[in-house]
Design brief:
Layout lengths: L1 H15 L3 E13 L3 E13 L4 E11 L6 E12 L4 E17 L8 E19 L2 E10 L4 E10 L5
Antiparallel strand pairs: 1-2, 1-8, 2-3, 3-4, 4-5, 5-6, 6-7, 7-8
Length: 160
Amino acid sequence: MKRLMLVLVVSSSAAWADPRLELEVGGGASAACLCKISPALSARLGVDFAEHFTPSVRMMTFALPGSDHHTWAVLAEFRAHTRGRFQVNGGVGLGVGAAAFNATEAGLDAEFFRISPYVNLDAGVRLMLGRWWIGANVGGMPGQRVVTAMLTVGVSPCGE
């Protein structure tokens, strides 16, 4: 029994001791109230531990739906995924972002920025092709009432 526990501890430690770098970019659409659709871009850098958990940093930008204004966000993200060739994944990100608004719509001749906290939630699937993957994720930012859909391409350059 003691040997079995030792084998389990050593094998689980080995999985945690072999982290893999992940790089991912994505493009898609964002929509507020599902009425106006605008382009969205995302880039993520993370470290995969134990082939399931990936703390990451994500940068996102998208046009505010229904306007010419853009916003960006930088998020600390925690992701989880299954193993295998076909993987289910999901993540939650917390960070800050800024939106630029042109106040002429309100009768003022000015532009201002608003920096606010961002929360991003998403879930999706990805198909592993060796070190590379392609995927699709759907998510959103509840505080901003924005829904996003992204197609992603990623690579784990130091692994497998």
